[in-house]
Amino acid sequence: MYVIQMKNITKRFGNLIANDQIDFDLQKGEIHALLGENGAGKTTLMRTLYGLYSADEGRIFINEKPVHITSPRDAIRNGIGMVTQHFTLVSPLTVAENIVLGATKGISINPREISKSVAEASRKFCIPVNPDAVVRSLSVGECQRVEILKALYRQAKVLIMDEPTAVLVPQEVDALFKSLKQLVEQGLSVIFISHKLYEVMEICGRITVLRGGKLIGTVHRAETSEKELAKMMVGRETFGVVREAGKDPGEPILSINNLKHVRNDGFERLKDISLNLHKGEILSIAGVSGNGQSELVKILSGLLKPTEGKIVLDGIDITGASPTAINAAGMGRTPEDRHAGVIGELSVAENLALEGLDDYLNRGVLDRKKIREHAQELIEEYQIKASPEDPVGKLSGGNIQKVVMARSLSRNPLCIMAAQPTRGLDVGATEYVRKKLLEQRNRGAGVLLISEDLDEVLGLSDRIAVIYEGRIMDIMPASEATEEKLGLLMAGVLDKEKTPTF
Amino acid sequence: MSKFRIEKAPAPAWVRPAIPVAAVVVTFVITLVFIAWVKVNPLHTYYYFLVAPFTSTVSMIELLVKATPLFLTGAAVAFAFKAGYYNIGAEGQLTAGAIAGAWLGVVLEGSTPWISLPLMIICGFLGGVLWAMVPALLKVKLGVDEVVTTLLMNSIIVYIVSYLLNGPWRDPVSMWPQSPDIDQSAMFFKLIPRSRLHFGFILGLITLAVIWYLINRSGFGLKMRAAGSNAEAARFSGVNVGNTILATALISGGIAGLAGVGEVAGIHFHLIPGLSSNLGYTGIIVATLGALNPIGVGIAALFFGLIETGSLTVSRALGVPVYLGQVVQAALLLVTLGMFVLTNYRLKREG
Amino acid sequence: MLIGAFTGFATAYLTGSLWAGVFAACLIGILAGLLMALMTVYLGVNQHVSGLGITLFCTGLAYYAFRVIFGTPSHPPQITPFDQVNLMGDVAVLGPIFRQYPLTYYAIVLVPVVWVILYRTNFGLKIRAVGENPEAADAAGINVYGVRTVSLMIAGAFMGVAGAFLTLSTLGFFTFDIIAGRGWVCIALVIFANWIPQRVLLGAFIFGGVQALQLRLQLTGVKFPYELFLTLPYVVTIIALTIANRNAAYPAALLKPYKRE
Predict the structure, then answer these.
(1) Structural domain of residue A12, as residue ranges?
(2) What does the pLDDT look like over C59-97, one tens digit per residue?
(3) CA pair distance B121, B119, nearest whole angstrom
(4) DSSP letters along B255-277, please?
(5) Which of B216, B229, B237 to mutate to test the interface with A (most CBs of A within 10 A)?
(6) Which residues of B touch C38 (CB under 8 A)?
(7) pLDDT value at residue C193
């Protein structure tokens, strides 16, 4: 018996097809994994099921009857609960209040009563929570338990878990898996979104793999292996840019030593990162996003101060320096989110001038002629489809990325940090950006490429490092890397063998 | 079954400038209700409101007089909003400028206009800066919401004025609570003899021109616009967002202070309680209607001058209460705000 | 508040019933709340600017209507305000304290009522959830827009009655500067009280007490800059705000319009 069937689901965002005719089904009492890299369309598919998106095409059946789900309310009514990475809990309220929120009937609420009924549910489902605790004081793992109990309290028969282990420490993961197995025995069905292979192999019965918005296939755990799954997940497409053989790497230009970052809530996002980047090489940091890349990029951009460690660029200590100082030291920066690098309401010319503004000022007054000429030059050189006066916000993603790159590369930086430079770009723009990065390397600059696109990493790099949960798992020459090896490193599988205590 | 769906879609470019005009029309349609209440002919009312002020020199001049402080408060608010700093405190900063002017004007006794005029302007500006300082520092250094603090500062200064006028500054000659008249030299000269139109009008126009130049042509203005529209990206691009906002907030306060000194040196010649009569708050409306653009602010201020003068004319000719003017102004603000939002959407028919 | 003061007054004046005045003030407050909801909840307009716009609109309208109905009389039209109700008889000390206007009692009773609504009812739970985390509330199947609209209507009703208190209880007539910024003071009050109803009551007593105290001090004839004394609550609020900001005590979604993706 199928509790959920999704047939032929297609969802577009503008020109991007996030889900391309996907079929998915869930049997009663199984844990079914939805596996894929970031941007593969897993979350979009599940948000559609939960009524947060409406599909452009396709139909949904629950208990083999067709349904229309247009809001989370409908989903809840149909017995679907969802636990996301971003908890939807109201932090100043108590656990019990959060759990009954929106599920209560009548007018008055008696705190003692709801506390009692939540405690009862907690016992029934074997999910330990303290009903009277204020959510703000809970740990991440406890919050997750509250979210699960919240869904079960509303009689959820299907639980969607969106990368539930991404935020947990290993002991909490074990506890979670134990509860999930118990719940499944009680008749719950679970959809488990993940990109971590070993987890999927540990608890799931069937595994559906998505890649680039398309369905790759559904397999049984018993009939597959981590290697096969890694291949299905990562895939391989033709790669347009040809890399010439590298010259011998030059002397080190950027050295990162024992970099640590601990977030305000005590979560360690970067654990002891050490890297040396040489002149004339592309060093990639591969990894599924959310494993500390954002923090690394922000630290190297001057937007975040590291908790510990030292960063030296061409003999200058830039640890915790301001964006302007890092820029002046010779770092060309491309932010992870290109919209966080340019100001949409300002014109192309103004954005191009903003980073080195002092060069375009004449006693505090903008040298408009110089700014315009500079913009005109870069627009031609980088083939940006815009005029200098156009607001950047009106450009396409590819052209915005070109503006960002033109701005940093035009200053001939010694070192270039490119974070996810081709994410969301079309084929033409992607190739252009990759070509530019190779040009910079051949010019003698050191390029630090932070990317989750394995094709890109394998196609461009001289050396490849893999980041997983805030630490560098391994650094290898590109010649020794295979997608399978990288895929396993990125999914934390090889790590388990190397450091079993982790 | 076909149904309509609301979709987010940016309006074509020509719509934005057309909004204020459309808003004026809608507002007058709405205010018909209130005019009909007093049983006068709405067309007559609108005639006296919008056309009659232009038929006499006296009311034309009065229009400019009314617009004068609004140039400055509108400029002050627009300048701050442009950098994403929601300065609701123009009212208090204006009063601070007025206090500074009323003090200096008395101190300058026996001086010449050549010395007094620039000193008055600087002093009024500094008064506004001073009053804007606390909320600005709290915002930049500690992240305290500026909206509430600037608003509270408005209330505080009302009591300070009342203290000054009932205590140390009270003019012994007058029976009203007011400060002594400022020195002849410190009074702003008249642009037209025997009228109330004074140098403050020019000061307002100059200020609008200066902030236009500052916003659109200076490096500081570029940083300010960057900080105001996307602080994160501005920081990435090397803009010191905190310092930029601090400077903007202080300049904004200073401009509001100029409005205050203008009211003291050009109209009243002494400090009175309730000197501002909502000029600071009206400045927010003017700035919003002018789309935070100094040229737009100038036009909006003149239009508000017209409404205020017009409401007097209407009142005199038809006996409609002058407060109709305020109703029209506020309704205009609300309609414009709503329309700006609505232009981001369009109705789409689904099959 | 002003429009409440006026509507309450005008209705009472025209109908001769004080309670009709209170009711009308409440109604017009609800309308003003609805207007606010339209602007901020549905259109997502900046709350400061639209709040200010509605304030000016209502003020203008009240003045305008006053002139339309009453013209420009030399003496303000009078009504007989509510009598004070004495709960304690002539008991020493307690007697004078409990000689208050009926609306005052209601206002004090309202504090626990609001507390019960906020903390002991389903609707209150929704209000708090929507104020703190509208995304979470939406995911839990709560109508965020609806809850916000109803909250604003209730708030409007309270404010309307507050205005009516001034005209119907204390003064018995309507003047133009009758409110004297009390609406803004209440914002300060809420910040001061950290969004906790019982502390609002305490804050209101302190704010009111400062006013009463300065009046007493003035009567004693002691030379004393009482106006500066009056600024104290505001200064304290700014300081409280600075400290509270560190503790992030106010509703997280304050001032944020909510739009589902």
Answers:
(1) 2-234
(2) 777 777 777 666 655 555 555 555 555 444 444 444 445
(3) 5
(4) HHHHHHHHHIIIIISS--TT-ST
(5) B237
(6) 338
(7) 64
Decide if B147 contacts C48 (C-beta within 8 A). yes
Q: Which domain holds residue B117?
A: 39-320
Residue A169 lies in a domain: yes
B174 falls within a domain? yes
**Whether residue A183 sits in one domain with residue A126:** yes
CATH of the domain at B219: 1.10.3470
Answer whether A341 sits within 8 Å of B233, measured CB to CB: yes
Chain A residues within an 8 Å CB radius of C121:
107-109
Task: Answer whether residue A146 shows pLDDT above 80.
Answer: yes
Residues A160 and A287 in one domain: no
Note if the pTM is more than 0.90: no
Coil vs helix vs strand at A124? helix
A282, A298, A302, A310, B1 from A317: Cα distances, Å = 22, 16, 12, 7, 67
* B3 within domain boundaries: no
- Tokens at residue B93, please? 């900063």
Q: Taking 80 as the threshold, does the pLDDT of residue A432 lie above it?
A: yes
Of the candidate ranges B135-144, C20-29, C150-159, the one whose mean pLDDT is the lowest: C20-29
pLDDT band (50, 70, 90) for residue A448: very high
Cα within 13 Å of Cα(C185), Cβ side:
20
CB contact under 8 A, A102 and C142: yes
**Would residue B158 count as lying in a domain?**
yes
The alpha carbon of residue C244 is apart from the nearest alpha carbon of chain A, in Å, by: 15
Of A339, A342, A350, the CB nearest to B222: A350
**Token representation of residue A117:** 């009924």
Looking at chain C, which subunits does it touch, using at least 3 CB pairs closer than 8 Å as the criterion?
A, B
Note whether residue A370 is domain-resident.
no
**Percent of all residues in chain C with a pLDDT value above 70, rounded to a whole number:** 43
Backbone angles phi, psi at B262, to 5 degrees: -60, -40
Would you tell me which residues 261-280 of chain B have a C-beta closer than 8 angstroms to some C-beta of chain C?
Answer: 274, 278
Rounded Cα distance, C175 and C169, in Å: 14
In a domain, A383, yes or no: no
Mean pLDDT for chain C? Answer: 65
Same domain for A146 and A50, yes or no, is yes
Q: What is the CA radius of gyration of chain B?
A: 22
Q: Which residue in A354, A361, A395 has the most chain B C-beta atoms within 10 A of its own C-beta, making it the best mutation to test that interface?
A: A354
Same domain, A120 and A25: yes
Asked whether the predicted pLDDT for residue C13 surpasses 50, the reply is no
Give the separation between CA B341 and CA B348, rounded to whole angstroms: 17
Q: pLDDT tens digit string along A10-19? A: 988 776 788 8
Q: Are residues A268 and A223 in the same domain?
A: no
Query: Residue A197: inside a domain, yes or no?
Result: yes
Q: Select the more confidently predicted residue: B98 or C92.
A: B98
Which chain A residues touch C if contact means CB-CB below 8 Å? 52, 71-73, 76, 82, 87-93, 97-98, 100-111, 150
C140 vs A contacts (CB less than 8 Å): 72, 88, 101-103, 150
Q: Which amino acid is at C122?
A: N
CATH of the domain at A134: 3.40.50.300
Q: What is the pLDDT of residue C9?
A: 47
Are the C-beta atoms of residues B313 and B46 closer than 8 Å to each other? no
Report, as an integer, the average pLDDT of B276-280.
84
Q: Is B203 on the interface with C (CB under 8 A)?
A: no
Interface partners of B (3+ CB pairs, < 8 Å)?
A, C
The enclosing H or E element of A334 equals strand A331-334
Q: Are residues A230 and A256 in the same domain?
A: no
Number of domains in chain B: 1
Q: Are residues A189 and A273 in the same domain?
A: no
Tokens found for residue A205: 């019965």
**Nearest CB partner across the interface for A102, out of C128, C132, C141:** C141
Instruction: Tell whether B351 is covered by a domain.
Output: no
Structural domain ending residue among the three candidates A234, A264, A294 = A234
Q: Which of A323, A357, A366 sits opposite B235 (nearest CB)?
A: A323
Tell me: the pLDDT tens digits for B8-63? 555 555 566 677 677 778 887 887 777 777 777 777 777 877 788 888 888 889 89
Which residues of chain B does C191 touch, with a Cβ-Cβ cutoff of 8 Å?
Answer: 148
Read off the pLDDT of residues B234-268 as tens digits, 9 standing for 90 and up: 999 889 999 999 999 999 999 999 999 999 999 88
Same domain, A442 and A321: yes
State whether residue B6 sits within 8 Å of chain C by CB. Answer: no
Q: Is A351 on the interface with B (CB under 8 A)?
A: yes
Count residue pairs from A and B with Cβ separation < 8 A. 76
If one compares B2 and B138, the residue with the highest pLDDT of the two is B138
